[in-house]
């Protein structure tokens, strides 16, 4: 089941006796556990029939005793175990026995964050059989822009590909942060209007002219004036443009340029799929590949790795600042 279908079922009160929400990405775990916490019971019922406990502060004996009770004021009793990764899972024999005959009026939720549940455990197989198991995986950097489009599309909204790419580059893979910014955009931009780069600048604080996305574009065109203007802006605003983020983005960008060089099918649709980008950007990669041949692209990727180490204090003099390092790197990329 995907997240949206689970949320729909929760809203319709089509509930499972047990939910195991686990994985490295907390966003989807919070989304589902919050929906159960806030939508299954009303405020009056929660006082009698809802319990929120924490993994460090409870054990399976206590949990199973709670789970076997029947609701007092509603059709369901809800028990949410937050930070369930801190439970002593080696002692889960009681849970295994409970899962063989779960109380039908109890909804037991395990919010197991920041790590995957051990699928070798017998209880995992039983959880998967009698309940709902969601593995919440981290989103790769090149998938964030697509996820932004999906979220807005589900809400009946549109965003320009450039604006989505700006958000993805600036906010990274922290989906909770991205989701909060999307909510802000939907509140402040008319529903009939496509969200633009200017809207991103006004509402999120990302400069539409001086950001990592625009730096990549300037380099692809070998526009040295624009590239150095952007790097100087970064040097003047280091907190908004930390060098690890900038160098990471450059590395991803030039790796995709190299990948484009080796694509057997360079048509727009095929290239977009292979590179993990919106078709809108394929022309830019085509242009960049003409400006940076395979040998030069290999050399640039090596340079980026070298300057990544320098930015971390390795193989560099103590007086070299991040602004100087970025300027050096951009000069070497262009020359």
From TrEMBL:
GO terms for cellular component: DNA polymerase III complex. Coiled coil: none annotated. This is DNA polymerase III subunit delta. The keyword Metal-binding does not apply. Its EC number is 2.7.7.7. One of its GO terms (molecular function) is DNA binding. GO terms for biological process: DNA-templated DNA replication. Belongs to the DNA polymerase HolA subunit family.
């Amino acid at each position: 089941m995907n997240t949206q279908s689970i949320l729909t079922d929760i809203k319709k009160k089509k509930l499972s006796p047990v939910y195991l929400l686990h994985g490295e990405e907390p966003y989807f775990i919070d989304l589902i556990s919050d929906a159960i916490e806030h939508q299954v019971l009303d405020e009056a019922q929660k006082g009698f029939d809802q319990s929120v406990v924490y993994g460090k502060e409870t054990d399976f004996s206590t949990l199973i005793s709670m789970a076997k009770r029947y609701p007092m004021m509603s059709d369901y009793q809800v028990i949410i175990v937050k930070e369930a990764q801190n439970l002593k899972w080696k002692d889960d024999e009681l849970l295994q026995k409970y899962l063989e005959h779960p109380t039908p009026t109890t909804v037991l939720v395990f919010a197991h964050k920041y790590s995957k549940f051990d699928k070798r455990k017998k209880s995992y197989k039983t959880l998967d059989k009698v309940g709902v198991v969601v593995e919440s995986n981290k989103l790769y950097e090149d998938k964030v822009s697509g996820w932004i489009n999906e979220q807005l599309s589900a809400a009946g909204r549109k965003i320009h590909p450039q604006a989505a790419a700006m958000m993805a580059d600036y906010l990274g893979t922290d989906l909770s942060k991205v989701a909060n910014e999307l909510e802000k955009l939907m509140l402040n931009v008319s529903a009939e209007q496509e969200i633009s780069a200017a809207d991103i600048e006004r509402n999120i604080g990302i400069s539409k002219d001086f950001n990592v996305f625009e730096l990549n574009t300037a380099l692809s065109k070998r526009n040295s004036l624009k590239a150095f203007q952007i790097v100087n802006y970064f040097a003047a605003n280091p907190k908004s443009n930390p060098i690890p983020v900038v160098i990471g983005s450059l590395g991803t960008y030039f790796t995709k340029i190299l990948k484009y060089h080796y694509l057997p099918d360079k048509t727009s649709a095929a290239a977009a799929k292979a590179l993990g980008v919106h078709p809108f950007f394929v022309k830019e990669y085509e242009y960049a590949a003409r400006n940076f041949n395979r040998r030069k692209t290999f050399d640039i990727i090596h340079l980026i790795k070298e300057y990544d180490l320098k930015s971390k204090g390795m193989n560099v003099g103590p007086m070299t600042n991040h602004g100087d390092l970025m300027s050096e790197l951009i000069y070497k990329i262009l020359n």
